[in-house]
Sequence to fold (228 residues):
Amino acid sequence: DTEVTQTPKHLVMGMTNKKSLKCEQHMGHRAMYWYKQKAKKPPELMFVYSYEKLSINESVPSRFSPECPNSSLLNLHLHALQPEDSALYLCASSQDRGHEQYFGPGTRLTVT
Amino acid sequence: AQKVTQAQTEISVVEKEDVTLDCVYETRDTTYYLFWYKQPPSGELVFLIRRNSFDEQNEISGRYSWNFQKSTSSFNFTITASQVVDSAVYFCALSEGSNSGYALNFGKGTSLLVTP
Fold:
C-alpha cells in the first residue's frame, strides 16, 4: 500500500480565513513533505519533516504554518493568504530522505 | 541554475509509436538519486522509478525503459508502443544531499499527448 491521503480535495477561502490542509500516510514513512504546484509548473518544495521534526523550510511566508502531530500526520495551517497562493498543494512521504516519495492527490486551493 | 533540464516541453505522438523523453541533470555530489514521475490530468504525481548514482544499469518495466548515462549526465525515459493512457506530464527529478537534504528538484516537465 503506497497511499497518501489528503483532505480536503478542494478548498476556497477568503483572504481573512484560517483553514488547514491535512495529509496522512500509514506506510511507516519517516519523512513527509509539502509542495506547492502552480498550473503548468513543476512542484516546488515548501517544507520537509524528518522524524517528526521540521528539517527544511524553503523560505515559505509565515502565513503557511506546518505541523506534524505524529509520524503519520502532516498539517498545513493557512492564514491571511493572498490570491497568488492559489495552487495545488501536494503532500508526499518517503521511507527516509533520498528515497522515492509517494504523493497524495493534492488539495486544490483557491484564495478569493 | 536549473539542475534538471527537460528540453522537450511538449511531445505529440500517435498511438503505438515509441517516444523518448530526455532528462539532463547537473550535480557535484557523488551520491545522488534520479527519479521519474508521471502526472496525469487528474493531478496526482505517480512515482515511476528511482536510480542511485552508483547504479548505471538500464531498467525495463513493461513498456517503460530508462537509460542512465553518467558520462552525459542523462537519464532518459522511453515508452514503447505508446497508448492514449500514457498522456500526461512527465517530470524528471534529482535528489542530492547537498541540496535541502535530498529534497526533489524537478525539471519543468514534458507534456506527452498520445492520440489514437
The mean pLDDT of chain A is 93.
